[in-house]
Design goal:
elongated; alpha+beta; 7 helices; 193 residues; five-stranded mixed beta sheet
């Protein structure tokens, strides 16, 4: 008996995942984009669509629910989808309203540092961007917190115009940053500091 189990290895089960919500198709109804999931399943896997969402399958599922429960379920699903769409729209609006500011700050009489903040709104990884800028300009660059508590990249040297050109050309890690959202700010050190 032990020799039979060793001769035939158990094959792993292949699980299909929805390309819209990343759940298995039988769990798509619990996601926030159920309608789009059903459309994807109907196009990609018609046999599975018939199994889960054909009229007979739905009637067998809904036969156990009361009319009030059916109406409530449909209403909840519609509300979930509307909420998910609003959230996605709000995130897009926030992203487009965000500004990337490049600030040239005087350190000593003739020494400058360039601070760049606002990149995280465009899904730029600050550590990678810092390393990219350090290699590009052959200077030191690091990720630090500014006075407002936000992360920013500080590059040694007066490279504000060069950074602007890099972002406008969508080079390297800056591909997702629209050039219209980039501003250069000049900050001079006050006397007595």
């Amino acid at each position: 008996m032990a020799s039979e189990s060793q001769s035939e290895p158990i094959q792993p089960i292949q699980v299909l995942y929805c390309q819209v919500c990343t759940f298995p198709p039988e769990y798509c109804e619990f996601g926030s984009s159920f309608t789009r999931c059903k459309e994807w399943l109907k196009e990609s896997h018609p046999a599975l669509y018939d199994k889960y969402y054909s009229d007979e399958a739905l009637q067998s599922k809904l036969g156990t629910l009361s009319l009030e429960a059916q109406a409530k379920l449909e209403k909840d699903t519609a509300e979930k989808e509307a909420k998910a769409e609003k959230k996605a729209d709000a995130a897009l609006k926030k992203k487009m309203a965000s500004q990337v500011s490049i600030k040239r700050m005087e350190r000593n009489k003739r020494k400058f540092v360039t601070a760049i903040h606002g990149l995280e709104a465009f899904d730029v990884e600050l550590k990678k961007a810092s390393k990219f800028l350090a290699q590009k300009f052959a200077t030191g660059a690091s990720v630090t917190k500014n006075a407002q508590g936000q992360d920013e990249i500080v590059v040694q040297g007066d490279v504000a115009e060069d950074v602007l050109e890099l972002i406008e050309s969508a080079t390297g890690v800056f591909k997702s940053v629209p050039s219209a959202n980039v501003v250069i700010v000049e900050e001079k050190k006050k006397k007595g500091e």
